[in-house]
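To: structure desk
From: M.T.
Subject: fold request, one chain
Message: Could you run this one when you get a chance? Sequence is below, nothing fancy, just the single chain.
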Amino acid sequence: MSIISSFPETFPETFPETNGINIKNEKSLHQDIKKWYYQNGDRLEVKVSGKIIDIVRDDLLIEIQTQNLSAIKMKIAKLIDQHRIRAVYPLAIESTVITLAPKSYEILRSRKSPKKLTFIDIFDELLGIASYLAHKNFSLDVILIKQQDVRIDDGHGSWRRRGVSIVDKHLLEVVDRKFFATAEDYLQILPIKKLPTLFTNKELAQIMNLKCNKVTKITYCLKKMNLITVIGRRKRSLLYSLPDPTLDPTLPSLI
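Reply: Done. Structure tokens follow.
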């Protein structure tokens, strides 16, 4: 994969139209992605119907979320009927973890995290907003990134990290992206040519070489978008059916 883009030179130094708690609490990764996504003419940190929007591009409201997509569920609910909304979400395919000393901030150690996410992992985040994915005014831009995780060995962090605290994250590269403009775009995540017309979560997991709990999240979202249908059970498992384009010509051909 190659780098999609670097930070634009035109990104304004003094940019926000509002300067409240949202700006003060922003982490570096959120700021970095905002810089990467910025285009000339964009308005930043704009109040729309009482909600602060990261980027307003003409009539498009762009929200960057780096942790929990469900956190913007209420914002989407309030604005989506009157505005086009795009959520931008990063997935780290590579994380370099650096650990600093608590006072001098010298680098004590550096390592690569074994956790590598792929586009399929976006469904972990979509459960909370699944009811909006098929809305005509909603779109999703998923970017695969390389990032730097900054930690401090101060003894105040989780016991799982042996007291090391997570301090910040930084964007290093954007290496790929996938844009979901319509509900049918999400259907392309399935291996259509290998998939029988009727299938269970277990069968789909075997075909996609994924764990069943991961596949359950995928089918939950697709069912919410009416892209697959539960037609019964096979033994104790829900039995799903793919859409038939001959019944609904707006659906993509699955043959």
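Reply (cont.): The chain has two domains: 21-181, 188-241. Let me know if you need anything else for the meeting.
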